[in-house]
From TrEMBL:
It comes from the Eukaryota. It is found in: Membrane. This is Cytochrome P450, family 2, subfamily X, polypeptide 9. Belongs to the cytochrome P450 family. It comes from Sphaeramia orbicularis (orbiculate cardinalfish). Pfam families: p450 (PF00067). GO terms for cellular component: cytoplasm; membrane. Gene3D superfamilies: Cytochrome P450 (1.10.630.10). Transmembrane segments: none annotated.
């Protein structure tokens, strides 16, 4: 038994040694080390490298990313199907959802369904906007309970983001204290931990330890999947034409309408739930965490935001998403925060769908594409002040908000984040409402703020504490 395993392992290592061949016209890059590929050199600004034995190309800079993902979107919008995360998810979610599905007509159908469901979600007092504002009230209550003491914001923002997306997915009515929210936030934080940190990045890319990590990931996803399944089985029979229609109900409608041969299946629904729940929680929460970290570290920026928010909202009860057009400075700050947060530094990996070319190099079908979104954030020639936190990067000489096309935290092209509008709405409504009511202060015993994010698939600021005071005008 043991001898057999040893022989198999030896054969496997031996084949890996000879699998890192570079195609003739492949872009230049360093020589890969067997098994590791170029993982030990991820700091280099390479054009080409190997993930274990799989050829990969890093897209560096806005021009290369736009050329590939937008102008040649058809060739560059695939997804690799054999990375660690696929191994972890496949046994649970048998059918692909959106995030990990390869470029195909069934991916397109589900993506379109997702976009439509988000777009059509509720109206008037049931609108997405009102849901988010309702959620900010919960945040306000939590913060009012801890005025003057220092609190850890991490769980609060993760719970808020998880709760908002859960409402859209299955009309979840539970509060933060409920095990349901706690469970999901716990799972998402654990999964992120696996992918985060420099070591986590290597693990993510290394074939030899992938299997072990997959099993751990599998356990977490399995739990989340079970919970989603329970919601569906309880609600399938009691389905009522309530408004707003959440994603599960819209999907079940779709299942009834379409016949066989459609790409909609119950398995797809579970994958879709997992995709949206996960993609919509950690990203938004970490952007909010970065936002408040910077607002506390730059009190003068916080005050200027509050002044402009007070002026624009004047006697109004609550902010609306439309108000953003008049709030030039807060908008500039939120965009600068996204630049600093660099939440998805390497996006989600893409794959080339057919033999193609990019900037004079030929790229064979199947090559993994790593869009280095970080590389656009400090690129020379695009920013007034690339290396500092400075909202002027998003203001013209008249102090009006401008959005340079090269800020792409949501990526670009056919695969661009489909929750962008929801995420922007959450960031704006939550930040503005909280800033209007509270002052956020770095606690005296909190050490010096450390603004460097923890490197990972989804980056997160180092844990910090914050002190909340009521504003005198509020
Ligand atoms: C600040 C918050 C967010 C950031 C920075 C972000 C960023 C990204 C990025 C970089 C991608 C990969 C795009 C690519 O492959 O090129 C992506 C994909 C995706 N995001 Fe987001 N995202 C955020 C919030 C959300 C939210 C709230 C949702 C919830 C609906 C969501 C749902 C998705 C989905 C479903 C995909 C996969 C799209 C596809 O593969 O076709 N995201 N996001
Ligand atoms: C991505 O770009 C950043 C900034 O230029 C660089 O520091 C980082 O090493 C690059 N990452 C990869 C994987 O090439
Ligand atoms: C398990 C579960 O979440 N069931 C939900 C079914 O739908 C109703 C109303 O839409 C919710 O109140 C239940 O919590």
């Amino acid at each position: 038994m043991f001898a057999c395993a040893a022989v198999l392992a030896a054969v496997w290592l031996f084949t890996l040694l000879f699998r890192t061949h570079r195609s003739p016209n492949f872009p230049p890059g360093p020589r890969p080390i067997p098994i590791f590929g170029n993982l030990l050199e991820l700091d280099l600004e390479n054009l080409c490298l190997f993930i274990g034995s799989r050829p990969a190309v890093v897209l560096h800079g806005f021009k290369a990313i736009k050329e590939a993902l937008v102008n040649k979107g058809n060739d560059f919008s695939g997804r690799a199907q054999d990375l660690m995360v696929n191994h972890a998810i496949h046994p649970i979610a048998h059918a692909p959802g959106v995030v990990l599905a390869d470029y195909s007509s069934s991916w397109r159908e589900r993506r379109r369904f997702g976009l439509m469901t988000l777009r059509n979600y509720g109206l008037g007092k049931d609108s997405m906007e009102q849901r988010i504002l309702g959620e900010v009230n919960t945040l306000i209550k939590l913060m009012e309970q801890s005025l003057g003491t220092s609190i850890s914001p991490q769980l609060i923002f993760h719970s808020a983001a998880s709760y908002i997306i859960s409402q859209i997915l299955f009309a979840q009515q539970y509060d933060y204290e409920h095990d349901f929210t706690k469970f999901f936030v716990g799972v998402f934080l654990e999964v992120s931990k696996i992918f985060n940190g420099r070591w986590g990045m290597w693990i993510h890319l290394m074939e030899c330890v992938e299997v072990l990590i997959s099993i751990r990931l599998f356990c977490f996803f399995q739990g989340a999947h079970e919970k989603h399944r329970k919601i569906l089985s309880e609600n399938k029979t009691t389905r009522v034409p309530q408004k707003p229609r959440h994603l599960i109900d819209c999907y079940l409608d779709e299942l009834e309408k379409v016949g066989d041969g459609s790409s909609f299946s119950e398995d797809n629904l579970y994958s879709l739930l997992l995709d949206f729940h996960f993609a919509g929680t950690d990203t938004t929460a970490n952007t909010l965490l970065t936002c408040f970290l910077y607002l506390m570290s730059y009190p003068e920026v916080q005050e200027r935001c509050q002044k402009e928010i007070d002026e624009v909202l004047d006697g109004k009860d609550q902010v609306s998403f439309e108000d953003r057009h008049e709030m030039h400075y807060p908008q500039a700050v939120l965009h600068e925060v996204q630049r600093m947060a660099d939440v998805a530094p390497l996006s989600v990996f893409h794959k080339v769908t057919r033999d193609t070319e990019l900037m004079g190099f030929s790229i064979p079908k199947g090559t993994i594409i790593i869009p280095n979104l970080s590389s656009t954030l400090t690129e020379d020639g695009y920013w007034k002040d690339p290396h500092h936190f400075n909202p002027d990067n998003f203001l013209n000489d008249e102090g009006q908000f401008i959005k340079p096309e090269n800020l792409i935290p949501f990526s670009a092209g056919p695969r661009t984040c489909l929750g962008e509008n929801l995420a922007r709405m959450e960031l704006f409504l939550i930040a503005v409402t909280l800033l209007r009511r509270f002052r956020f202060i770095w606690p005296e015993d909190g050490g010096t703020p450390d603004l460097t994010p923890q490197f990972g698939t989804i980056q997160t600021p180092k844990p910090y504490r914050m002190k909340v005071q009521l504003r005198p005008t509020a």
